[in-house]
Design brief:
EFTu-like_2; binds magnesium ion; EFG_III/V; binds guanosine-5'-diphosphate; alpha+beta; globular
């Protein structure tokens, strides 16, 4: 296809503003999929994505569009993830296209992720067409939201396209805007050596790894031998094609085009996102700039509730890792939990997604230990150790100081909840950087320790603002602080899975809260159980769980047999989700819940 007839674009939006629905409509209206094959949210393939309404991996689709000028254009849509954890995936797929549709829910206005994503688009030099969605709803206020886009983002919104992705109203205008207002790909040279960007990849059980590519220069053909410039791997190309959105073979992919290749690549790990693909011989000399592999930032231990399922867990983790290069794992042994894995994730959502998939797709009940960030531990001898697990904290006498990662968090919130948000950020050791107004909403920017955010910050934020706040963050660097390792002892035995790193000034409060929670969460035993928090050898908080009365069913006052039976059954079911620590059984739920802060 000649460059002038190609439009490559992405859709940027805050979660739930209608990105996937709009993508579906564009595909439907251009007849890319027959009515029979159309199902909602075509581009969101995974179950969890569907349930949570989020798109995790970037997806792509090619649409042929006969425009009003009489020419047929090729539109390539890359659908990017909308969640903070996947910021790197967004930024890299943005570099594969020239324009963006900025979708804003006209009943809600600009949100934190709208800002984060649109800034990424601006950084990638995109032309941007604002689209106001959900105009079918009575609460839609296009004038106000257009003004907000101009004030807050600083782009012209006078010609914003007004649509309802749900009813289909305005979709033809979106298609015309893509053709007339977004630019074609920048110059690409067909006769130059192949230079293609690796945009994304995924594992297909039949085809092996499928690689999504954007051609910059040259032509990619079936049978070519290609080389990944960063990883150095070389492969023979088996198949090339485009997504419509079903995989459809094509003879070649030329400059400006987006498509896929397969080359009997065994694992996703061999295909680094952002890498440059060229031919093995007579290839291009300089790779594309800006490559960086995605790095895990949140770590936690995953252990099977049932120790006999360790091999199954290993199997499931290896399978999932084949398809997700941003997820890391290594075997871990814990005195209390036995064999498991220490895993690294891009963020909490990523952690939850992987954990859910293991539990659901592989049927393994898991104990998840406290999520931790990577601390930098500076030893007295000058060495620096990256600490991924509080259990590995070196002996304090050898430690000079610790540093922790900090983030810059941007939160948009209606005025009435501002006070609660400021309090939450202060409570989490935040330092305010900025407070301004974006339309009717306050925009607060905080410098926060990542460790205070990884656990339940997002949940807390949602609850104190009744869901009205939006949040986005980026890592800004490491900073020294007074951090200590706090251990929890149950019946005098340390439970390393509950060890956490905390700020010294907050250790007592945190320790007390954890002991109180555990007292609620651990069922009574025949003996009394002390639950303690300690720093080094020093106890800083203590609760005692009283001993159980002899007969659990005694409180049913004899008569009601079915109630008695139910109670016993409940106990039995509960047993399965318990783990033994010394003489004490701790339910799986305790590991996560004990760490939540109120
Ligand atoms: P995404 O998270 O940006 O991909 O948003 P979705 O496309 O999944 O849409 C989020 C929700 O908004 C879904 O329940 C959609 O049905 C709904 N939605 C999307 N567009 C419209 C619209 O134009 N009008 C109305 N009323 N609802 C919409
Ligand atoms: Mg979506």
């Amino acid at each position: 296809t000649e460059l002038g007839l190609i439009r490559n674009f992405s859709i940027v939006a805050h979660i739930d503003h209608g990105k996937s629905t709009l993508a579906d409509r564009l595909i439907q209206l251009t007849g890319t999929v027959s009515e029979r094959d159309m199902k909602e949210q075509l581009l969101d393939a995974m179950d969890i994505e569907r349930e949570r309404g989020i798109t995790i991996k970037a997806n792509t689709v090619r649409i042929d569009y006969p425009a009003q000028d009489g020419k047929t254009y090729v539109l390539n849509l890359i659908d990017t993830p909308g969640h903070v954890d996947f910021a790197y995936e967004v930024s890299r797929s943005m570099r594969a296209v020239e324009g963006s549709l900025l979708v804003v829910d006209a009943t809600q206005g600009v949100e934190a992720q709208t800002l984060a994503n649109v800034y990424t688009a601006i950084e990638a030099d995109h032309e941007i067409v604002p689209v106001l969605n959900k105009i079918d709803l009575p609460a839609a206020d296009c004038d106000r939201v257009a003004e907000q886009i101009e004030d807050v983002i600083g782009i012209d919104a006078t010609d914003a396209v007004q649509i309802s992705a749900k009813t289909g109203l305005g979709i033809p205008d979106v298609l015309e805007a893509i053709v007339t207002r977004l630019p074609p790909p920048h110059e690409g040279d067909r006769h130059a050596p192949l230079k293609a960007m690796l945009v994304d990849s995924y594992y297909d059980p039949y085809l092996g790894v499928v690689v999504l590519v954007r051609i910059i220069d040259g032509v990619l053909k079936k049978g070519d031998r290609v080389r990944m410039m960063k990883t150095g791997g070389t492969y023979g190309v088996d198949r090339i094609g485009v997504f419509r959105p079903k995989m459809t073979d094509v003879a070649e992919l030329g400059p400006g085009e987006i498509g896929f290749l397969t080359a009997s690549i065994k694992q996703v790990r061999d295909t680094r996102v952002g890498d440059t693909i060229t031919t093995e011989r007579k290839g291009c000399e300089t790779p594309l700039p800006g490559f960086k592999p995605a790095q895990p930032v949140v770590f936690c231990g995953l252990f099977p509730v049932d120790t006999s399922e360790f091999e199954d867990l290993r199997d499931s983790i290896e399978k999932l890792a084949l398809n997700d290069a941003s997820f890391s794992y290594e075997m871990e042994t814990s005195a209390a939990l036995g064999f498991g894995f220490r895993c690294g994730f891009l963020g909490l959502l990523h952690l939850e997604v992987i954990r859910d998939r293991i539990e659901r797709e592989y049927g393994i009940d898991l104990i998840t230990t406290a999520p931790s960030v990577i601390y930098h531990v500076y030893m007295r001898d000058g060495e620096m150790i990256e600490l991924h697990n509080p259990a590995d904290m070196p002996d304090l006498t050898h430690v000079d100081h610790l540093e922790e990662p900090r983030i810059k968090a941007t939160i948009l919130v209606p005025d009435e909840y501002l006070g609660d948000v400021l309090k939450l950020c202060q409570d989490r050791r935040g330092e305010q950087l900025d407070l301004t107004y974006a339309g009717s909403r306050a925009m607060v920017v905080y410098d926060l320790p990542l460790n205070e955010v990884v656990f339940d910050f997002y949940d807390r934020l949602k609850s104190v603002t009744k869901g009205y706040a939006s949040f986005d963050y980026q890592l800004i660097g490491y900073r020294q602080d007074h951090l200590v390792k706090m251990q929890i002892l149950v019946n005098d035995e340390p439970v390393d899975a509950l060890s956490v790193m905390v700020h010294r000034d907050r250790a007592e409060a945190r320790g007390r809260a954890m002991c109180e929670k555990l007292k609620e969460l651990i069922p009574r035993h025949m003996f009394k159980i002390p639950i303690q928090a300690a720093i080094g050898g020093r106890i800083i908080a203590r609760e005692t769980l009283a001993a159980l009365r002899k007969d659990v069913t005694a409180k049913c006052y004899g008569g009601d047999v079915t109630r008695k039976k139910k109670l016993l059954e409940k106990q039995k079911a509960g047993k399965k989700k318990m783990r033994q620590f010394g003489k004490v059984e701790i339910p799986q739920a305790a590991f996560i819940n004990a760490l939540k802060m109120d």
